[in-house]
Amino acid sequence: VEKPRPRATKLPPVGEPLTKREMEQLLTAGEGRGVMGEGSLKGRLILSGELPHLVVVGRDKRELTFLLQGPDQEVLPAYVDHKVSVSGLIKKTTNHSGVVEVRKYSAKKPEVEEVAPPPADTEPKLRYLSPGEVSMAVAAGMGAGIKGFASIRGNLEMMGEDFVLVVSNGGTRQQVSFAIEGKAAVKSLRKHVGQTLQVTGVVDKTSGWGGRITAETVEPRPSEARSVSRDEMELVHIEGEVPTSVDVKLNHGLTVRLQEQPGATWAIEPTLAKRVGLREANFEPGPNGSPATREFFFTPRNPGSFEVEFFLAKAFTPGVVERSFKINVTVKP
């Protein structure tokens, strides 16, 4: 059984600021266990066990590792290997590591050393991505900078006039998608929008949330059988951006249809998607040039009240939100 990973979404109340003495203890490897207070730390962001950690160089050049918690925990993995400074409640839980409840953070791209341009003929040869690299390319928050030849599968959507392949976590703010370019990105792809495609070509993952694929071939695949049949189900439907409250029966359905905007995509928090049972986030092109819509289909498996917030997030950078609205869902047994 997989143990639930520590997810801290609520921030604790503001504590006492750290004194100079406490800050020294905090930054000394081998002492300071139990010290806590408000302060800020700078370091390099790494992922460990899929959670963001900050590696801080303390006194005597010794490294300390702090787990980063708080509402930003979902977005921080996109800044792997960046220089990140965080401020918030810092707790030193062992003599060599601790936890930061992040209230504010800022990230700087790692500085690239100036390299003389290589002679023109030594262009790096494109290589086939290994299976491990392919799985990193389609995973959220990982594998930025991977480039090579591969075959990836996903659902075809459109962003304005451009084709986009969504390869994982569709409909959530950890969605990974690739813009399809190259000779296979032709108008005739329109008839496959909303279907599963296998796209082969040069994958270039520019950030943790996707990039582009220069497609050589595009093959439709039978869409995976829908995990949940909607027959025999009582469906509650919400049309458009209306903050509202609805009652849904346990194990029955809720559908929410929202109009897509060019350059942006509707999404919900991944943790909430699990809690409220998001089964599908279907992109549907509008008839005769009218705007496309996205339909979220939920089958709640847990009774209770949930506040489902829908974010209109910028495509490929889900941390940037244009606007959002909330629906209160009460799941009744």
UniProtKB/TrEMBL annotation:
Q: Which domain of life is it from?
A: Bacteria
Query: Matching Gene3D superfamilies, A to Z?
Result: 2.60.40.2020
| Gene Ontology molecular function terms on file | cysteine-type endopeptidase inhibitor activity
Record keywords: Protease inhibitor, Thiol protease inhibitor
Instruction: Write down what this protein is called.
Output: Protease inhibitor I42 family protein
* Organism taxonomic ancestry: Bacteria, Pseudomonadati, Myxococcota, Myxococcia, Myxococcales
